[in-house]
Amino acid sequence: MAHVNRQIHLVSRPTGEASLDNFRLVEQPLGEPRDGQVLVRHHYLSLDPYMRGRMNDAKSYAQPQPLDQVMQGGTVGVVATSRHPGYAEGDSVVCFGGWQECSILDPSVPGTLRKVDTTHVPLSAYLGPVGMPGVTAWYGLLKICQPRAGQTIVVSAASGAVGSVVGQLAKARGCRAVGVAGGADKCGYVTRELGFDACVDYKAHPDPKAFHAALKDATPDGVDGCFENVGGMVLDATLARMNAFGRIALCGMISGYDGEPIPMLQPALLLQSRLTIEGFIVSEHMEVWPEALKELGTLVATGKLKYRESIADGLAAAPQAFLGLLKGRNFGKQLVKLV
Amino acid sequence: MAHVNRQIHLVSRPTGEASLDNFRLVEQPLGEPRDGQVLVRHHYLSLDPYMRGRMNDAKSYAQPQPLDQVMQGGTVGVVATSRHPGYAEGDSVVCFGGWQECSILDPSVPGTLRKVDTTHVPLSAYLGPVGMPGVTAWYGLLKICQPRAGQTIVVSAASGAVGSVVGQLAKARGCRAVGVAGGADKCGYVTRELGFDACVDYKAHPDPKAFHAALKDATPDGVDGCFENVGGMVLDATLARMNAFGRIALCGMISGYDGEPIPMLQPALLLQSRLTIEGFIVSEHMEVWPEALKELGTLVATGKLKYRESIADGLAAAPQAFLGLLKGRNFGKQLVKLV
Fold first, then answer.
1. Does the beta carbon of B63 lie under 8 angstroms from any beta carbon of chain A?
2. Do B267 and A61 touch (CB under 8 A)?
3. B278–A280: do the CB atoms touch at under 8 Å?
4. What is the pLDDT of residues A134-165, one digit of tens each?
5. Domain holding A239: CATH number?
6. Confidence of residue B2 (pLDDT cuts 50, 70, 90)
7. CA atoms of B131 and B154, how far apart (whole Å)
8. Which domain holds residue A245?
9. Which ipTM value was assigned to this complex?
10. What is the average pLDDT score of chain A?
C-alpha cells in the first residue's frame, strides 16, 4: 500500500458548462486508521449526473460540494486495514469514499459503509443496478409511476444506469417499456439487449416536432408513466403524450445541468391531463432500500437484469469521464476503475 | 311563464382572446316537460374559468362546448313544473342547466339535479362556496396540499370563488394563508374580510422580480402548499419559494387560457425541492362531495366561511361578464342573475 493517497479536488465552480479546469489531481499523505476505523482501498468510483448540481453553489437538495476538497461520491472497494471488530481485511464494501484511491472510514457512523457479497454479484454492480441507481429506478417506477400491466412507461436516458433498470422492471410487470436514448447503438442495445418494446433516438430527431412524432409512433396508446432523467424537449414531448391521470417521476433534468434553466413549455398539460409529477431523490427514502436491493440483487445474480458499464481507467481519468457522462458519451453506468 | 326560452349559444371558437362575437343570444320555443321530467326556472347562472378551455376544440379534460348550442354550465333555480314524483313546484335545485332561462331535466339521470335547502344557505351559494368552487377548494387543499398546522399555504386568485375558500379552510387548520390577487381592493378584502395573513398584489408588482420579492416578504418561512389557479409568473415565483417536499394543487392556469401556452420557467425546482404537483378537476372526485359539502354548508350557514359575489344582471349580460372574469374584473364568485 502506497503512503500517498491521490485525490481529485473541485478547485473552482463552473460558469455554464463544467470543464477540466474545475478539477485538480492532488496527492496527500495517506494516514493510518485509528481505533474503530477502517482503511478502504477503492476499486471503483461511481460517476453520477447529480454531482454536476453539487458543483454549483446553489440551493439544491444537497449541500454544495466544498471547494478544494475531495469530490464526493459513491465507491466500492476492499478493506485494506481494519481497526473495527465488524470488518476484516479483504471484506468487500460499498461506501461514500469520494474521488480518491483510499478512504479512512468510521463504520459506527450510520450509512458510512456496508459489507457486500460478491459471490453472485460483481463488486461494481453495487454502484449500479444493485446500488443507488438501481434503487432510484425501483423507487421512482414502483412508488411514483405505480405501473399496472398493460400500461406504457417511457424512460429517458434509457441505456443508462437508472433508465436501463426502469425499463426492465416495467417489462417484468407487464408494461410496454419505451426508452429514449441518443444514437442508434444505444437504442439498439435498449431494445435488443434489454428487451424494451421501443426506443426513440433523440439525436436522430433533434427537432421537437420530429421527436414528438417519433415518440408518438412508439407510444400508440399514449403514456401512463414517465420516468424522467433528462428534461427539456424529451419531457415536453412526453407530457404531450401522457394519458389522463398519468404519473411522472422526476429523477433528473440533465439537459439543463449546464447553463440556463430549461423551461417546461406547456405546463397546462399537467392540468388538462390531470397529471402528477413528483421530484425525488432516493437517499430520502431509505426505508425502501432493503426491499429494493433484495429484488435487484436477485435479478442481477440470476441474470434477469442486464446492465452495461462504461469504465474509465485510473483516477486521473475521472474528470474527463464525468464531463463525458454529462454529454451522454457514456454507455451504461459510468465507473472509474482504480484497481 | 313565457313560452320563449332565451339562450346564449357559442357560435364560433376564439382564436386567441375570447370575444363577444363568439356568443349569440337566441330565442327558442320553451317546450313542456314530459312524464318523469321537470322544468326548472334558473335564478342564477355560474360563470367559471374552466368554460374558456371548453370553447377551444382541443384536447382537454372535458369535451369541447359544441358550436351553435347552449353554453353549458352550472345553474340554480326553482322547479316551475314537475312531472317527476320526487320534485314539487317550488323546490330549490342545483343543476347543470346552461346559459338559458329555463331547462327541462330528467332527474333519473344521475347528477342532473339535486334539491337544496335554502333555510340557512342562500340559493346562490350553491354555485359558490357550497358548490363546485367550494368543493374544488376543499379537495385541492385537503387532499393534494395536505396542510399541517404551522405551514404556509399560498393561493392565487385569492378573492375568487375558489381561492377565498382555500385560504379560509387553511386558516381554520392552523396554517399561514397567503393570497395573491389583483389590486388593492381585492387584497384588502382578502386580508381584512377573509382573514388571510397576507395578500400579494400582482398588479402592483407586474415585473417577475418585484413580484418574487413581494411574495418572499409574505412567506418568510417559505411555502409548503400551493393552490394554483393562475399559472405563469405567479406559479414561477411560488415554485421558487417552495420548501422541500412542498405540494402544489394545480386547479387552473387562467393566465394562459387565451392565446399561447405560458411556460414554467424553472421546472428543475420540482426536482431540487422534491415537489409534487398534481392537476385535478373536482368532478372526477365525486366521492368527496358529500363530506366537503357538509363542512362547507355548515361553515356558510354559521357565518364562519365568508364569500363575495359579482352579479351580472340578465341573460344578455352573461358573455360580457364571462370575458370580465377571464380578465379578473369580477370580485368574488361571478354569477348572472336571471330572476
1. no
2. no
3. no
4. 999 999 999 999 999 999 999 999 999 999 99
5. 3.40.50.720
6. low
7. 22
8. 132-283
9. 0.89
10. 95
